[in-house]
Amino acid sequence: MLTIASDIDVLARFGRALNDPIRCRVLLALRRAPAYPADLADALGVSRTRLSNHLSCLRDCGLVVAVPDGRRTRYELADERLGHALDHLLASVVAVASDRTCADAETRDCCP
């Protein structure tokens, strides 16, 4: 049975995904173009294992999808509107509080 997530659930999933700098970097990279995990790991300077954990979190949050491509798997944003949402979010935060830093930046939760 398909259920529609509440607005709060949707925002919580998005916030959880953005709660880690590596996941943010993955989303920003995929905003530009789909990518393969090995290429993403190299571009972001993280191990493939670590990247795999973050991609799993982003998949679980419903923000990225794994697309089979022959023997490889390519990752992309689950919906192109997520790229636009990231653009708007970046522009909004900069416009509203460009001189602020998040007080809780050091106390991040990670996806289970």
What can you see in these coordinates?
Residues 4-97 form the HTH arsR-type domain. One of its GO terms (molecular function) is DNA-binding transcription factor activity. With 112 residues, this protein is mostly helical. It has one domain (15-94): Arc Repressor Mutant, subunit A (Orthogonal Bundle). The chain has helices at 7-18, 21-32, 37-44, 48-60, 80-97, and strands at 64-69, 72-77. Strands 1-2 form a two-stranded antiparallel ribbon. Helix 2 crosses helix 5 (80-97) and helix 3 (37-44) packs across helix 4. The longest helix is centred in the last third of the chain and has 18 residues, at 80-97.
In brief:
The protein is mainly alpha-helical. The protein has helices spanning 7-18, 21-32, 37-44, 48-60, 80-97, and strands spanning 64-69, 72-77. A hairpin with a 2-residue loop joins strand 1 (64-69) and strand 2.
CATH class assignment = Mainly Alpha
- CATH homologous superfamily placement: Winged helix-like DNA-binding domain superfamily/Winged helix DNA-binding domain
**Overall mean pLDDT:** 85
Strand content: 5-15%
Number-wise, the strands total 2
Q: Strands of the largest sheet, in order across it?
A: 1-2
Write a concise keyword list for the protein shown above.
cadmium ion sensor activity, HTH-type transcriptional regulator CmtR, disordered C terminus, 56% helix, 11% strand, 112 residues, DNA binding, Arc Repressor Mutant, subunit A, WH-like_DNA-bd_sf, transcription regulation, mainly alpha
